[in-house]
Amino acid sequence: MGEIPGGTLASSTRSRRLSAFVHHTMTRARTLAVPYRLGEVVIGDDPFNGRREGSVAVKFGTFVGLQTGDQIFFYDYRQLRRPD
């Protein structure tokens, strides 16, 4: 294990380790692996954005920016599919 420096309480060291663990876990959860590569052609279907076909231009967490012509529409990656 690690050494506990003199003057610090064991409970504060434990809470710092727990805080670091939670921070690391949350960071990994936010950066989920989106199964689409940049430049890949996909179809997005959303009741608010409508159905659009375009290429993946941006990946931000679970959101994917779909570029169609001169506009970018953001979809959740679960609302995208590859064309048949």
Quick structural overview:
With 84 residues, the protein is α+β, with helices and mostly antiparallel strands. Helices cover 25% and strands 37% of the residues. It has a domain of 41 residues.
The Cα radius of gyration reads 21 Å
Q: Give a quick account of the main beta sheet: strands, pairing sense, barrel closure.
A: 5 strands, antiparallel
Order of strands in the sheet with the most strands?
4-3-2-1-5
End-to-end separation: 54 Å
Element order: H for helix, E for strand: HEEEEE
Determine the mean pLDDT.
83
* Secondary-structure content class: alpha+beta
Count every helix, treating DSSP H or I runs of 4 or more residues as helices: 1
Uncertain runs with pLDDT below 50, 5 residues or more? none
Task: Please estimate the helix content.
Answer: 25-40%
Molecular shape: elongated
Total E-strand runs: 5
Strand content: 35-45%
